[in-house]
TrEMBL record:
A Pfam family matched in the record: CobW_C
Organism: Gorilla gorilla gorilla
Keyword check for Membrane: no
The protein, known as: CobW C-terminal domain-containing protein
Ranges for domain CobW C-terminal: 24-91
Xref: InterPro entries: CobW-likC_sf (IPR036627), CobW-like_C (IPR011629), Zinc-reg_GTPase_activator (IPR051316)
Molecular functions per Gene Ontology: GTP binding
Source taxonomy: Eukaryota, Metazoa, Chordata, Craniata, Vertebrata
Coiled coil regions, renumbered to chain: none
């Protein structure tokens, strides 16, 4: 389950701050994102949607069932995207692994 602040921070870094770079040191530019996340302390499934610099998280009427594993999925469309780095960031976000998470954000190297 994801902490709400962590998912906000990930999305804001990708859409607003644009401070995530690929292995070639090019800025990753996310044009669209969509996903389903399990938010800590929420019984409902949460949909994540974003276009350019706008995004929204919305609880659905569908509750997670007690006997099923909660999943987190995110689909990104854009330019200079690096699947491996994005996957590491998302996994670090949903597992709240701070060390992995912070190594990919270059806060002092914001893309223009």
């Amino acid at each position: 389950m994801v902490g709400l602040i962590k998912i906000y921070h990930l999305i804001q870094n990708l859409l607003w701050e644009k401070n995530v770079r690929n292995k070639d040191n090019h800025c990753m530019e996310v044009v669209r994102l969509k996903g389903l996340v399990s938010i800590k302390d929420k019984s409902q499934q949460v949909i994540v949607q974003g276009v350019h610099e706008l995004y929204d998280l919305e609880e659905t009427p569908v509750s997670w069932k007690d006997d099923t594993e909660r999943t987190n999925r995110l689909v990104l469309i854009g330019r200079n995207l690096d699947k491996d780095i994005l996957k590491q960031l998302f996994i670090a976000t949903v597992t709240e692994t701070e060390k992995q998470w912070t190594t990919h954000f270059k806060e002092d190297q914001v893309c223009a």
